[in-house]
Specification:
Strand content: 25-35%
Helix content: 10-25%
Oligomer: single chain
Length: 276
């Protein structure tokens, strides 16, 4: 009996030691989170804004109202204001419905659908346009990746992705699904506040429905990172910058304050689109 009592503390110590080794053999078992990537906005509420570059720099995504890789189609009547239209690596022949008027330098074209001083650029135009567009496309892709990589969202799967009727305060939002907006949605905050919406599938704004800004919120500070397609239905109104991994469609007479930056096709139809 005395021998058993003497060995008991040693047995307990050995068992505890073995248990510690088993827990540390898997680096994920510690429960420690990966390093967060959600820098705060230095000027207001919400996350730090996504950098699109200067609005006057043709190598920056931020100088384009429409920027796409495979094509841009237009039905007559559209009006693009406050910036440029760009397409790369597809050629100018994949920009349709704009009645392009080539500049004598062949560096850019103009169109009645693009309000001056906005210009239209394509990958097969004269230098420096091809190089500028290559850089702008890379900038657009980097902006998408930046928005998608932010972690520790303030709101996760809000309203299961059906956000009509919601009031969205500044912050980082993430949905593991698509997002539908069947009725008006309000984005409320100040002029320096920022919103990033991470959407794992499609974004759909219903017919005659609006994204409404209140409290001084600005479209230039609203980033919709969409891994699927974006559709803004007829007579709807949209606010913000769309960073789409696929295509963006604005149906008949829909309007938008923002930028449509797509990694495939942009289709517009008698739309008023104004840079933020």
């Amino acid at each position: 009996m005395l021998r058993s009592l003497t060995l008991l503390p040693f047995a307990l110590l050995l068992a505890a030691s073995c248990g510690d080794d088993g827990g540390s053999s898997n680096p994920d078992a510690s429960g420690a989170d990966a390093e967060p990537n959600n820098p705060p906005n230095p000027n207001g509420l919400g996350p730090a804004p996504v950098d699109l570059g200067e609005t006057t720099d043709p190598t920056a995504a931020g100088s384009y109202v429409l920027l796409a890789k495979t094509g841009i189609t237009n039905v007559t009547g559209s009006s693009i204001t406050g910036g440029n239209v760009g397409l790369s690596p597809a050629a100018a022949s994949f920009i349709t419905g704009f009645s392009l008027i080539a500049d004598p330098t062949n560096v850019y074209s103009t169109s009645g659908s693009v309000v001056p001083p906005g210009k239209i650029y394509a990958s097969d135009y004269a230098a420096p346009t091809p190089s500028n567009l290559t850089t702008a496309i890379l900038d657009m892709e980097a902006a998408f990746s930046d928005a998608a990589s932010r972690t520790n969202p303030d709101f996760l799967n809000l309203a299961s992705g059906e956000i009509g009727g919601e009031t969205l305060v500044p912050g980082l939002y993430r949905w593991g699904t698509g997002v539908t907006i069947p009725t008006d949605v309000t984005i409320a905050g100040g002029a320096d506040d920022v919103w990033i919406f991470q959407i794992s599938n499609d974004l759909d704004l219903s017919t005659a429905t609006s994204v409404i800004l209140s409290g001084g919120a600005l479209a230039k500070n609203i980033f919709w990172q969409v891994s699927g397609e974006t559709t803004i239905h007829a007579n709807a109104h949209f606010e913000g910058i769309i960073l789409s991994q696929t295509g963006i469609t604005l149906q008949t007479t829909a309007s938008m304050n923002g930028r449509a930056l797509a990694q495939s096709l942009i289709a517009i139809d008698d739309n008023a689109i104004t840079a933020p």
